[in-house]
Amino acid sequence: MKRFLATVLAVVMCVNLLPVSLVYAAGTSETSTEETRNTEEETSDEGKAVVSDAESREETVTEEGQIQKKNTTENMEETTTETGKAATDTAAGVDMDISSPTALLMEASTGQVIYEKDVHTKRSPASVTKIMTLLLIFDAIESGQIKLTDEAVTSAYAKSMGGSQVYLEEGEKQTVETLIKCIVIASGNDAAVTMAEFISGSEAEFVKSMNERAMGLGMADTNFEDTCGLTESTNHYTSAYDVALMSRELITKYPQIEEYATIWMENITHTTAQGTSEFGLSNTNKLLKSYDGITGLKTGYTSQAMFCISATARRDGIDLISVIMAAPDSKTRNKDAATMLTYGFGKCNLYTDRNEEILANVFVPNGVEEEVAIAFEDHFRYLDLSGSALTGITKEIVMNEEVTAPIEEGSIAGRAIYYMNGQEIGSVHILYANSVEKASLIDYFIKVLKKSCI
Predict the structure, then answer these.
(1) Same domain (yes/no): 135, 206
(2) Are residues 77 and 154 in the same domain?
(3) Annotated active-site residue in 44, 100, 124, 187
(4) Measured between alpha carbons, how far is 398 from 430 in angstroms, rounded to an integer?
(5) Which of 104, 194, 286, 393 is the most exposed place for a label (fewest CB within 10 A)?
(6) pLDDT at 406 over 90
(7) Active site includes 130?
(8) Which pTM does this prediction carry?
(9) Are residues 284 and 234 in the same domain?
(10) 143 has catalytic annotation
(11) Lowest mean pLDDT among 29-38, 177-186, 187-196, 218-227
(12) 48 noted as active-site residue
């Protein structure tokens, strides 16, 4: 009996004396550490020619920087390209020879605009519309609504589409993957409508989803009226900025689009009541053959929209999106898109921290579980356009001062803050990996009993 009363007394004392706050600070003098890291800086240089070869060189430079506080920095990478010849570093003030009335250059991982020219004017996008169509197709695949191997049946309405087409017959079946190729490579209007009907039952319902998706991406300059951009309606429009937004969403969320967008030529097989026949798909994006690093994405042309393109490219780990609208001809469209890409690869210094290190668990003084795991929310990316070497970037882990249950999984536990030359350049949230319920008196009693039995 005396032992039992002593145990109960110990529980009461534990409840009264439990700490109510915890500072997990990688910034206290007792725990601060300094680590050095080696970063590899890859550089390349390309001349201004769009199609012709240019001299290039690569060099690897090892720099030593200091990372303060409790960090692990082996997984940090810095990818850089040499400075271009623009007059300024501001997106609006760049001096480039762009003939097209509307143009925009964006870095894909950060969404930062590098160059812009009349980017919010509402214009007809022609077949660049199909970027949103493809985005919804891949959304449906990811959700499990459809599979690449599913077969979609072509309706009479889908067959009736004019413009660029792959000549699907009414009642013809093609797999989802084949229809994706028909849309991306050959810009098939009939294929786009077939997929719209397969996913949503009708093109009109699919267009509603397109506009909802656009709203979710913040595409304020956009309204869609069909799935392929063939319409002559003045109420079907978007802007260069919005094209970049949906292009970025497609290539970053579904990088497998590159597998299809980089196919130059491929045959499909038509199987109908008349028999089977081969049909050749030829990519409408001629930059695939004239610009090094092109990864996509979609061209467009109507007499109303003129020549449009959303061109994506990658060099040295940097992904760029180059949007041209209303160019007078295809040569100008491709030249302007390539000029912006070359400029971007010359200006961009992209710093990436993958945040792969394992963070120590956090003590929860009043939780059912005494510890909870934490993790970084995402990678950290910082884009510099000044041409400076991105050395001297440091990272500080700062946790919430108070840690009390209940804790919800995914709630914010702290931040990883990044500094360059003493100035904050960004941060990444640190999140709780699990939920923790608040401990009751019985939970404390059980904890004490367990410890007394050890």
Answers:
(1) yes
(2) no
(3) 187
(4) 9
(5) 286
(6) yes
(7) yes
(8) 0.75
(9) yes
(10) no
(11) 29-38
(12) no
